[in-house]
Design goal:
Shape: globular
Number of helices: 17
Structural class: mainly alpha
Radius of gyration: 21 Å
Strand content: under 5%
Helix content: 55-70%
Number of strands: 3
Strand order of the largest sheet: 1-2-3
């Protein structure tokens, strides 16, 4: 029975990845491909890409490098609304044997506090929100070894902090209560590179050592962060990514696009930007967290159409309703919901 289960999982993984060719799995192809997807499909596309690379016949070191480059391209191309969701998918889908290596390579280069010019308060607040949101997704996804995955996520951002001892307790507190006790052990193991503990906790034979950074040649030198004023705002300047997986041409195009389309200080209702950010994802969070939250809440409500601010129109119901008064109290119990939840995906080792 166990062999049949594993065979079914392998066949399912193969069918999910069949549409992607090796040419589709290069950073140069991934970044524009995810950017072209509707926002609601970008996280699913990230999952498909990561599963395809994980199922490839490459050796463990090469697979870790490929997963790292793909992760950077996915984050870069995901856009403002889906950047954090893509991070959650990376830590949810990358095989646990390669996850520590991918996290090590992403940590300082992509998420480092010093690289992004965040103050201590800004960095801790951002990381706690990322870890809290991503860990809730990991907990509900049905993936294997969720507590270890959440712990590696928390350890990655703690190590990238200017003071890990300051940031670590806040990130552990952002994890689900049910895993916090175990996470304290796994976070320490991840930070210290203790792969034996991680392997024993996840049931894998070996956790792959961290290979050389596959994108080291694409690291773009960044100037020292501009001096912050006495009370820097969370709203940030347009970013220059620390690593551009698709090369200098894409870097120039992305930077120009962000500069042309970023909201002004007046539109955000905040003071002028004073701290420069080096990674697009952090810029996405910093500029419009309230707007992203409202968009996510509206999108999650059965795909109902927003007719005007504060007014929701349900096709076939006969008129608008007032969400403040309680949506469910105004919708008949038998009213059809157009977006039933899909079945949970099957992951390798889920039933071992």
């Amino acid at each position: 029975m166990k062999q049949l289960t594993l065979l079914a999982a392998a066949l399912l993984a193969g069918s999910l990845c069949a549409a992607l060719t090796p040419a589709d799995l290069t950073p140069e192809a991934i970044a524009p491909a995810i950017a072209a997807k509707p926002e609601t499909q970008r996280q699913a596309y990230a999952r498909e890409v990561l599963q395809a690379i994980a199922a490839s016949p490459a050796d463990d070191a090469a697979k870790t490098q490929a997963l790292t480059s793909a992760s950077r391209a996915l984050i870069s191309g995901a856009g403002r609304a889906q950047g954090i969701a893509v991070i959650a998918e990376i830590f949810n889908t990358v095989p646990v044997a390669q996850l520590q290596g991918v996290a090590d390579l992403l940590g300082d280069v992509n998420f480092g506090q010093a690289v992004n010019g965040f103050t201590d308060a800004q960095y801790d607040d951002f990381c706690a929100k990322v870890v809290g949101s991503a860990s809730r997704y990991i907990e509900s996804s049905g993936t294997d070894s969720p507590a270890v995955r959440m712990s590696i996520l928390a350890a990655t951002f703690a190590k990238a902090s200017s003071d890990a001892d300051r940031t670590r307790p806040k990130l552990i507190a952002a994890l689900p209560t049910s895993v916090q006790a175990a996470a304290a052990t796994y976070v320490a193991a991840s930070e210290q590179g203790n792969r034996e503990v991680i392997a024993a906790a996840t049931g894998v034979d070996e956790v792959t050592p961290t290979p050389a950074d596959p994108d080291a040649g694409n690291v773009v030198p960044v100037p020292a962060p501009a001096a912050a004023q006495a009370a820097p705002t969370v709203n940030q300047a347009a970013p220059t990514p620390a690593v551009d997986p698709a090369g200098p041409e894409r870097l120039t195009a992305e930077t120009a696009y962000l500069e042309q389309n970023r909201p002004t200080a007046e539109e955000e209702g905040e003071e002028a930007r004073t701290v420069e950010v080096k990674v697009p994802l952090l810029f996405h969070y910093a500029t419009d967290v309230s707007g992203l939250t409202m968009e996510a809440m509206r999108a999650s409500m059965y795909n109902w159409e927003v007719a005007a601010p504060g007014v929701v129109a349900l096709p076939g119901l006969g008129g608008p309703i007032d969400p403040v008064a309680g949506i469910h109290e105004q919708v008949p119990a038998n009213f059809p919901r157009p977006r039933p939840l899909p079945p949970s995906p099957v992951y390798a080792n889920q039933r071992i």
